[in-house]
Design a protein that fits this description.
The protein is an alpha/beta fold and 162 residues long. Helix content is 41%, strand content 29%. It has helices spanning 41-58, 71-78, 81-87, 101-111, 128-143, 150-155; strands at 2-12, 15-25, 28-39, 64-68, 116-120, 145-147. The chain has a six-stranded mixed sheet, sandwiched between helices. The longest helix is centred in the N-terminal third of the chain and has 18 residues, at 41-58.
Length: 162
């Protein structure tokens, strides 16, 4: 069983962002991380999980557990919100558009190829790997925010005055 810890952060919301994925795989620790110039905390949490799912899929890992401190992600999957959003045309139970649809769609797609359990871990509670993922995500947001979250920036670009 492969265990994976994910975390995402933004310095300001929106602001510079980063994510980290720590994969505990055959007695080794693999770290995936990136920093983005402008994004949100939820987008970074989602991107971390997407990167983890891509790793699982691309390495033909049969079973994995993803630990995240994002209650949104764990509830969306474990309480089947995600399936209801898909069934309802990406609308919430309040009939509002699901935020970050582009990332939820990628996550949903990848779930078709992997056998994963999602477990919530309380952030900043002393969990060794959650704390490490948080530190790496923050460092990437602060010092390596060079990637572009294209979808976010396109949807949130300043409007031109005509």
């Amino acid at each position: 069983m492969v265990e994976i810890y994910t975390d995402g952060t933004s310095l300001g919301n929106p602001g510079k962002g980063g994510f980290a994925v720590i994969i505990l795989f055959t007695e080794q620790e693999i770290i995936l991380a990136k920093g983005f110039r402008r994004t949100t905390n939820n987008r970074m949490e989602l991107l971390a999980v997407i990167e983890a799912l891509n790793f699982i899929k691309n390495n033909s890992i049969e079973n994995a557990t993803i630990y995240t401190d994002s209650q949104l992600i764990t509830k969306a999957i474990n309480e089947h919100w995600l399936e209801r959003w898909v069934k309802n045309g990406w609308l919430t139970s309040n009939k509002t558009k699901v935020l970050n649809i582009d990332l939820w769609q990628k996550l949903h797609f990848l779930l078709n190829f992997v056998n994963v359990k999602f477990k919530w871990v309380e952030g900043h509670s002393g969990n060794e790997f959650n704390e490490k993922a948080d530190k790496i995500a923050k460092k990437n947001a602060k010092d390596f925010a060079i990637e572009i979250d294209y979808q976010y920036e396109i949807e949130n670009r300043p409007k031109l005055i005509e």
